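Q: Could you write out the predicted structure for this multi-component system? I'm mainly interested in how the pieces pack against one another.
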Amino acid sequence: MQARRVVISGMGSISPFGRGVETLVESLFAMKSAVVNVPALNDIGGLRPRVAALVPYINPKEIPRKHRRSMSPMSVFATLACQEALSRSNPPAEYFTNGRMGIIIGSTVGSPIMTEEFFRGYLATRSTEGMRATTFFQIMNHSCASNVAQTLDINGRILAPSSACSTSCQAIGYGFEMIAFGKQDMMLCGGADEFHPLSPAIFDIMSAASVAYNDAPHLTPRPFDLRRDGVVCSEGSGIVLLESLDSAKMRGAPILAEIVGYATRSDTSNIADPNSDSMEACIRQALEDAGISADRIDYVNAHATGTIQGDIAEAEALNRVFGDNVPVSSLKGHLGHTMAACGALETIASIAMIEKGAVVPTLNLETIDPLCANIRHVRSVERLSVQTLVKNNFALGGVNTSVVIRRYEHD
Amino acid sequence: MTDREIITLIDTTLVNEFELNMADMAAEASLKDDLGLDSLDRVDMVIVLEKAFGFKMGEEEAIKAIRTLGDIHAFVINKKQLMQ
């Protein structure tokens, strides 16, 4: 069977910089940091990080109550990001209901905010009395995907991958495959997460959260930098609309880029520790899937979260695949770690780099860690004609993911 | 509580919970067709009214027959009287 070509025809972003793809891209190129000190974290016993990157206030009431009632913040983020992606691509109404448009949107967990609210009452009273009917729909792990489907009345496939940092990169990859194999024509793919102290706590107990820059939040995280000290958790949603090339051309949709390769692999060497061999295997498999050699890659958008081990392992893997000549940068210094949203938000930013003919450097990379010096770091905004790039995401639990994205050359 | 006070508290509670317009809170208004409350909302309606009035009503057989806002008014007024 001949696989169909798959393109990106829409993008939507709710990020710590605010609403919209334009806001995201402008902020990244302006080298802004979205990381702030969060005083609300001060009174949590045992928690050392005091920094995060939070989505500026959005009034959820722009979503009708009928749909909003089952949404926690992460579903609001995902819905608004989907609306932006669709508004730019403007698919005809029949696509929504003919079963050929699907949704793949995941989150790290179901709403931690609503989970806390439920258990606060439950543990205090040992009773479920007073539990609202809409609570479950926010706690369930496919909350974002279901809420988006209900709100936008999309009737095709629905899936909610949950693989923490790899979630939305996997969503894009699985959407790519479903369209390539003719099972769907169009798919909204991405991820969302809402901030809760649970996120930094998970990294903190593993000594992988940034704690040294609580009073200078804009200086952290610091991917690949000698003075990096860990992850900064954030929130948001990134969504891309994938579409078969035939469909996009037929309806005259904007074609922003093409997905040409994808790989995701389980790293069984350790459930928590990153492993450069596994990362390398994943990147090589994605290149193989794309049918291109490593020397065709012009830019790598790294996962690099600013942890000691993770950044070294990724740099080693990239060095083995690409040598020390392919420009590499991470966007975690700007955005923090948007968790399940990061793969899609970083994909959106990478596509913007293709469009602009320039790449964004790693924010807060001042002194390159000698153990990460084996790759070519982007240190300032660089003019670069990117034809093909690799987007990596590697997750706790041993879930590695790489996507290969290519500039779309119009006929 | 007078019957009027009970009705006002019911209407205000439902307006706040379900973002309704007070002008639409007529006794004859159908919960489903006029106020747009579906089965999920009816579960939450019972919960917010139980909280507002401080007594249980979710397991009452009569609650299943409620169709209009006036039915709720009558149900709660009756329940209050029985409790006194």
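A: Regarding packing and overall arrangement: The first helix of chain B runs from residue 3 to 18.
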